[in-house]
Input
Amino acid sequence: MTKLIEDIYETIAPLSEGKPIEVLQEDIESFGEAIKNVMRDWTAPTKRDSTFSIRMSNVGKPIRKLWFDFNYNNYDEIKANPSTQIKFLYGHLLEELVKFFVTISGHDVEGEQKQVIVDGISGHIDCIIDGEVVDIKTASGFAFNKFKNATLRDDDPFGYIGQLAGYEESEGTSNGGLLVINKENGELCFYQPEELDKPNIRSKIKEIKKALNRKNPPEEYCYPTVPDGAKGNEKLHKNCAWCPHKFKCYEDVNDGKGLRIFKYAKGYAFLTKVVVEPKVMEVDHEYQDLQADTETI
Output
């Protein structure tokens, strides 16, 4: 696995010199079928179950976030706009393309979408490469650097490391990782978390189940607040700013008034503590641009 990216690049390299590369016709046909299946699924989606459940894809997320997902499920109200649907599509297409690169570079790809279950929690593996679990991700240039520079352990809002740990627990393996493509420039990297960075997934699942049965959310916030300027104001961490539960989660801040929202030129700041009033427009939770404009500072 350590040579995976090197092998892919070496296989593709002759194209840069105007030379052909050897690809089996059966691999091209399999790739074509995979693309057709992606397009069929995208154009005719199945109805999403709006009921929250613990899944392997979310066990790595902060437990307070999962508590709110369980108790304040508003998925039926959240509808992806057309541009997001396009983003979903090319994410699936790129995943198939990456698996094609792995195949033509001589590595074994199997177990695609294999269902796994750990302590009653199920999920589906992207694939198994050379006997190890591999999750394939697409990322923006900024997010890609977290995988490339091995800093994901410090900022993993989607719980990718926990997800991988769950898959590996089911398969009895421990040397898998995340195969990532930078959707801006095509660069690839393989991020293999250190064993100490992976959670004990059975303990985590047990902790989640216990927390979801409680009346109140876990006291610890998912992420600490951060300074907004140098005068004592504090705002949500960027990962909390994206969360649909932020207003409910922080309803007690600012002396019970909840989050205060200020519209800066760069986007919205969700303040949890206001010592000095910002000299920009304050908006309420129902402000019409608030949900449309997803940029936050």
Observations:
- The two ends are 38 Å apart (CA to CA).
- The first helix runs from residue 4 to 12.
